Amino acid sequence: MSKERSARPWSSALFIPLIISSGGNSGSQASSIIIRAMALGEINFRDWWRVVRREILSGLVLGTILGVVGFLRVFFWQEFHFYDYGPHYLAIASTVFLALIGVVMWGTLSGSMLPLLLKKLGADPAASSAPFVATLVDVTGLIIYFTVAYIVMRGTLL
């Protein structure tokens, strides 16, 4: 009788802090940069499309870098027996990789657009600074992460 390793569905939960903090931090940073640029008169609401293009690119690059680090962390910890993620460790690693890209891109977009939108509505753009953006991106980041997990792990761990 062979002893088969059991699936560990909770293993993906280990990465929730990494994923939501990455999104919140990238959103807060983008918000700070946009608020500064607005204060210096470098951008205004009419520049929103240029800002979106730049933030998509920076979010994609940063998210990919963090995603690769997350993927490698799962892969090497499994291979070197630091932690046993179970037989579907590549699905967990892929989920972390894709979710980090999505959450960081969402964070940079939210953080950059919120100050512009608030300014357009006549509110103080600084009101969208770190706590508000981080909370918004953390909550929506969980939705992104669980959606990616559902798609990638459907039929294996879920």
Helix-strand blueprint:
Layout: H1 16-39, H2 48-79, H3 89-120, H4 130-153
Helix pairs in contact: 1-3, 1-4, 2-3, 3-4
Q: What does the model show?
A:
The protein is mainly alpha-helical. It has one domain (12-153): Tetracycline Repressor, domain 2, CATH 1.10.357. The chain contains 4 helices and no strands. The chain has helices at residues 16-39, 48-79, 89-120, 130-153. Helix 1 (16-39) packs parallel to helix 3 (89-120), helix 1 packs across helix 4 and helix 2 runs antiparallel to helix 3. The longest helix is centred in the middle third of the chain and has 32 residues, at 48-79. The protein is elongated. The protein starts with 15 loop residues before the first helix and ends in a 5-residue tail after the last helix.
